[in-house]
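Reminder to self: tokens first, then the designed residues, so the page reads top to bottom the way the pipeline ran.
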């Protein structure tokens, strides 16, 4: 039998993994919106999907700031030898209807970013005007997957972008157990 996502004669390779548990994270952030911490009991998920830590917006304050706009960025991920690749992560979100998170990818060192669309699509269009994003209340952790076939052969940076307007801040967008895997 073969593992999910693999084919006979090949085995899955993990090209990138971040669970937020180590002292040295393989992520950076821009905009002051994202942080790695234990969940805040007052808002957001009560526990991460594994371990004790997760990445999110508003983790220490209980909600994200008005007009927040920031990025959680992976280090460069080498897919030059990949035949297939998928991004998978767990997410929880509680945002106002005009605030949202989306995933973007750069194959050129951050010069250009492209919107990644998850399997099944985003929940709402137009939040990032004109692009879509994750918005509203997920109610629980959701396992989310993106096909990276268009970027096989490249070295990429993946960014989790969060953007809010000036009204009605809520808990935010939270991610855990980020993995890029596929076959070589």
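Designed residues (184 positions):
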């Amino acid at each position: 039998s073969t593992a999910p996502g693999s084919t006979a004669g090949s085995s899955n390779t993990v090209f990138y993994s971040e669970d937020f548990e180590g002292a040295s994270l393989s992520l950076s952030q821009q905009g002051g919106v994202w942080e790695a911490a234990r969940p805040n009991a007052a808002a957001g998920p009560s526990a991460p999907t594994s371990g004790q830590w997760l990445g999110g917006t508003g983790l220490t304050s209980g909600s994200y700031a008005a007009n927040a706009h920031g990025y959680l960025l992976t280090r460069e991920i080498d897919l030059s030898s990949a035949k297939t690749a998928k991004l998978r992560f767990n997410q929880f979100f509680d945002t106002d209807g005009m605030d949202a998170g989306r995933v973007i990818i750069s194959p050129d060192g951050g010069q250009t970013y492209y919107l990644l669309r998850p399997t099944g699509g985003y929940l709402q269009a137009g939040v990032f005007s004109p692009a879509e994003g994750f918005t509203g209340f997920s109610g629980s952790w959701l396992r989310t997957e993106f096909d990276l076939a268009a970027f096989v052969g490249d070295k990429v940076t993946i960014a989790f972008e969060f953007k809010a307007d000036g009204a009605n801040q809520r808990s935010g967008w939270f991610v855990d157990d980020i993995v890029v895997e596929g076959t070589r």
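Residues 1-7 have pLDDT under 50 and may be disordered.
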